[in-house]
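Look over this one:
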Amino acid sequence: MKKITFLIIEILLFSFFLNAQTTNLLFVYEDKEFFPDSVGNSEDINWDKPGAAVECMKLLEKKLDVKITFKRFPWKRCLEIMLKDGEADGLFTASYKKEREAFGAFPQKNGVIDETRRYGTTNYCYYKLKKSNITWDGKQIKNLSKKIGAPLGYSIVDDIKKMGYPVETSPGTTNDLKKLLADALDLVAALETQGDYLIEKYPEFSKNIEKLSPPIASKNYYLMLSNQFVNKNPQLAEKIWNALADIREKDFPNIVKKYYE
């Protein structure tokens, strides 16, 4: 009888420790600077100042029983290969497009994207040479003769094409602004935080380039989770998105401050 009792206790303890094991996750994000969310144009991560989004994702480890490994790759590889194939469990930060549901999952409520569980919101804006006579009123571009530059794989590319304007994609906004300076482009479409940061950082940009108003679009950005991970861990997936919403409200404002100091 005692042996049976001990055996039952051992089984229960084993089950407890098995269930209490930390879940190891792999999160991927772009290897191009996406200030202030990620810093540096490299696969390397500077943990002294990795970026506001990276720090927010890292906080998930404290709020949930998870351990996250972070890796950086080109955006299309992150989204269309690693997340789609389930090699990565999560990808940040991504705006919602219906076709992206084939690559991974967004937080939803009653079958609709749950904006309350976004990571954040950012504007896309046009940037032009100060000497240019191009204008933008929020609906129409006037005096456009060359293409508009935008980063490869970004959602704004399709948005501009739908407006009927030609787009030339590149590895990143820095490349686009250099092409703009060289008169190879008429406009650059960029995330406002990223475009403003680059113009402020580089004198040759600030001297010659300016931002146009109003913004092209305002978009919410999310942590995507792989469909494989969500199907296998639906409850944990919901906890991750819930925790990130809490981090956005309580922790993000203080985290992001140091990137503008």
